[in-house]
Amino acid sequence: MKAQTLEALASIKEAKIPYIVAINKIDKPNANVERTQAGLAEQGVYLEGLGGDVPWSAISAKVGTGVDELLDLILIVAELQEFKGDTSVPAKGYVLESHRDQKRGQAATLVITDGSIRPGMTVLAGRALSPVRILESTAGKTLKEATFSTPVQLVGFDELPEAGASFQTYTSKREAENTRSGLAREEKKVPVVAPTSIDETGHFTMPLIVRADAAGSLEAITHELTRLKDEHSSVQIVQSGMGTISEGDVKTALAGTIPAAVIGFNVAVDPIAEDYARHHGIRIEIFDIIYKLTERVEELLRASRPKRAVEEVVGRAKVLKQFSSRKDLHVIGGAISEGYFARGASVRVTRRNTTIGVGKIKNLQSHKADVERVETGSEFGAQIASPFEIVPGDIVECFTTSLK
Q: Where is each Translation initiation factor IF- domain found (predicted)?
């Protein structure tokens, strides 16, 4: 079973809501309904007729097999659960999808769970408000009224509502605006704070504010950006949504230890927000292609994360002889087995597979002449500064340190 199926199942069980299992793609040659039934049983889903009480149907959404039976089953379950609605009250429900229509403005598809909606009313979805001037079916047909269990399209929101947001319909615009004002006052009591840039483990997090034109775009962008990470750094979206980049977005960008970049996809920037960002040094960038947006954020992550000291072993040698040892200065002779040793480089000394400590090459000789560097296969003499003694048999690694 796919991960998204298990995730949906877990959500259903947690919410304790009735459900129906539709086993799809039975038109495929390799379809195996019995195997799917067994997999469901392993997850604690026991189907009707197989020792359980969960309704199910085998279908092919592609060719239509079993779809009518599934629809009948949905009606039966709804009747048994006594799902009821009241057509006399203003509609409420959820936003399925939203997008920006280039000709008509900001639009959303809504599914009504109770009540009725008709032209002349006002819809509030999250903080997005729209008067109901033209009500359409998902096929684009104009409707005079719609009631529960009906998906409808509405155009005219003052900002894009978020997919999954609940909506409520009001008989007057003033009532909807008053409700929105009350919600805004509550939101101000709980400020959004961006995360600190570096945690206790040294992991760097680059905060981002993301705005997109539609829920589908936002989901795709979020998916791509959360993949931009390695063991030392990652991107964290501290605030996201649909619609115009606002002054509030810019203020949120300033809330963290380091300012967040504000990234938009096919959206406009409010002039006030643009001025505020320019005054406070907040970066706002707009894109119309997702992969270019992703590439740019990756560049910002590389440029923003703190440089780390990275060690690279460039040579290894075995100590053959100790010529002198006094205080913190030791003269040894050795043979390089790989790489090279260089004057001024750091060395790490290992004895019987245990690291003794780190020192520094003060002078380097080959054939009794001072040299800057000796290569693989050469014997050498070296004066090494270290607080510990270096003895024959020790392994010495030469390494460089750079910021990356």
A: 202-298
